[in-house]
Hints:
18% of the residues lie in helices and 29% in strands. It contains six helices and 19 strands.
Amino acid sequence: xxxxxxxxxxxxxxxxxxxxxxxxxxxxxxxxxxxxxxxxxxxxxxxxxxxxxxxxxxxxxxxxxxxxxxxxxxxxxxxxxxxxxxxxxxxxxxxxxxxxxxxxxxxxxxxxxxxxxxxxxxxxxxxxxxxxxxxxxxxxxxxxxxxxxxxxxxxxxxxxxxxxxxxxxxxxxxxxxxxxxxxxxxxxxxxxxxxxxxxxxxxxxxxxxxxxxxxxxxxxxxxxxxxxxxxxxxxxxxxxxxxxxxxxxxxxxxxxxxxxxxxxxxxxxxxxxxxxxxxxxxxxxxxxxxxxxxxxxxxxxxxxxxxxxxxxxxxxxxxxxxxxxxxxxxxxxxxxx
Length: 337
């Protein structure tokens, strides 16, 4: 019988000083906790190459964070802040809007354009902008997680070096550790990088109040036929699949069946928690250290085993690893029992 987990099972005491405010420079100088079997190894991220063999595939999420936070005002003069969430059919954008008395028909005024609230549902608004989205984004700033208090001097620090498809409101942070030089060394060793896309949205960060009844918000993904073929061919030839981040695992689980990856695109609201039966061919994942009680720590507990993950987190805290988006990383091999 599967264990019934509660939120308290995914809580842990984290000293505030271990919450990273900036990532390592160079990026691959961050630390790496390798969790394989019942043992832990303490390395640096540039050592990841030692665990990847010729023929293996490393699947990365090529989404790019957009400057999705917009500062505007209401027609009455009061402040209104908009966070773009995702594009809707028809051209409108689903957004979170902060400000009092925001309702259907309200107009939000920016320096060079306006936005009208056409629908409102469960705290989210459908906004119609008077300008093309490119112009809207030119006036925005990049949103950062609330626990990053330090001002980001260079927005590129919150992008992966391989980001290319605009659409995320948060970075796939497991990929922040890669440098172009490290990626080339991995290619020179005979491994391949395969790109997929998942635009990270609020669904990843939606608070969990009740594990059994939690519902994820949808995030848009795309897995091309070429990407699916690269992964499937590698597995068929006996090679391994490394997933860079929870977003890649989520995407591949959405499009896989019996270890085979299928090309597909659309919205995914899959919630992976302990007890979940994995369908994709991923054998190891690279991931950061996640916030307590989050869907992300629940996913890696499902992938690596609950007891193993909580022991790894305890070890990381004792060794003073840096946590969350700009923190250190973990190479986690899939639980095989």
